[in-house]
Specification:
seven-stranded mixed sheet; globular; binds S-adenosylmethionine
Length: 353
């Protein structure tokens, strides 16, 4: 049996995993990439080649996020989506001395690893606190920490590369795995169960609403033909069904439909829009006068919500200023990290009275 992570060994030491061929292919075989602290040089080589090491999340648009949030010494920051802690670390460095960062994440598997990494980087409990919490509960976290309101708040929505890359989490068609997709595997139902439960009509509506899928009706019919238990079954059913219905459909278009299908299921399984709506409602009370918020979204359903909430807040004088246009990643970042190309960044500044 492959160990998930060599450091999971009870003795703290394992043999080098054996894999066929010269290079590891499976996620659990990539033990060097999964241990960047130990195999720093190998990981640097992978990064320099423009690839993202397995189990690593590259923070997106860091410079642009910092420009919107303007963190400075002594301030209280919140990272609503701690993930691998890339943005958090950049903010933590700028709120010193005297500042703090509260990091939230729903994922109980990655959160302790990120917390350990940030501790190892020198951020003690007086500067960094991690909360296993949905950002819908941000007001509770602030109350628990005795913070009346934060100076800056970041939300970088969606899932991290660590979650996507891990076949055990069942997020991506690129890896064979049980179709789970829960960011918090101890709550809610796996995507396979949701698929078995919802009606065809509801599924079509969900594909349309959560991912603007143009073939929503057909894909809903395909996915309701029998039990769908794995990521590869979704991939196969959608591709075969689309090929039969539209023989001239190009492969990239089909891949996009598979991706959108999985995205729509993920959003439903994790009730992502409800959490985002709750966060947007609570932001005005959670931000100090003059406080800044930045939100990175990855598809139109998210961006629409953020844009509407910021503009409504601006009209109501809750926000003194909001982003007129979305900010996008540079060409250079898009080349180095494909995930950046769909990112949209919006910001708002809380009014002072
Ligand atoms: C795109 S990643 C964030 C990456 C992070 N900015 C970094 O630099 O590594 C999104 C993270 O947000 C978490 N997440 C998504 N929705 C959440 C929610 N409603 N509440 C708390 N965490 C959430 C996911 O579990 C994931 O770890």
């Amino acid at each position: 049996m492959a160990l998930k992570n060599p450091s999971d060994s009870p003795q703290g030491h394992t043999r080098r995993p054996r894999y066929p061929g010269r290079n590891p292919r499976g996620f659990h075989e990539r033990y060097k990439e999964l241990n960047p602290e130990k195999y720093h040089a190998d990981v640097e080589k992978i990064l320099a080649s423009g690839k993202t090491p397995a189990g690593t999340h590259r923070p997106i648009m860091v410079a642009e996020v910092l420009r919107c949030l303007q963190p400075s010494a002594g301030e209280v920051a919140v990272d609503c989506t701690l993930g691998g802690g890339g943005h958090a670390r950049a903010i933590l460095e700028r709120v010193q001395p005297g500042g703090r960062l509260l990091g939230l994440d729903v994922d109980p598997l990655e959160l302790p690893r990120t917390e350990a990494r940030l501790r190892a980087a020198g951020f003690g409990p007086e500067t960094f606190v991690a909360h296993h919490m949905n950002f819908a509960g941000l007001p509770q976290v602030l109350a628990t920490e005795g913070v009346a309101a934060a100076d800056l708040i970041l939300a970088d929505l969606g899932v991290s590369s660590m979650q996507l890359d891990n076949p055990d989490r069942g997020f991506s068609y690129k890896h064979f795995g049980q179709l789970d997709m829960r960011m918090n595997p101890s709550r809610g139902e796996p995507a396979s169960r949701l698929l078995a439960r919802v009606s065809e009509d509801k599924l079509a509506a969900l594909l349309d609403e959560n991912a603007d899928e143009p073939h929503a009706d057909l894909i809903a019919r395909l996915l309701k033909q029998g039990p769908v238990e794995t990521t590869h079954e979704v991939d196969r059913l959608v591709r075969n069904g689309l090929t039969a219905a539209f023989p001239s459909l190009a492969t990239p278009e089909m891949k996009m439909s598979v991706r959108r299908t999985l995205q729509a299921l993920r959003i439903a399984v994790n009730d992502e829009f409800s959490a985002l709506d709750a966060l947007l409602r609570s932001l005005p009370q959670c931000l100090a006068p003059g406080g800044r918020v930045a939100i990175l979204t990855f598809h139109s359903g998210e961006d629409r919500r953020v844009k509407k909430a910021f503009q409504a807040g601006y009209r109501a004088d809750v926000y003194a200023d909001v982003a007129g246009e979305v900010i996008r990643a540079t060409m250079e970042e898009n080349r180095a990290n494909r995930r950046a190309s769909s990112a949209k960044l919006r910001w708002a500044v809380r009014a002072t009275d």
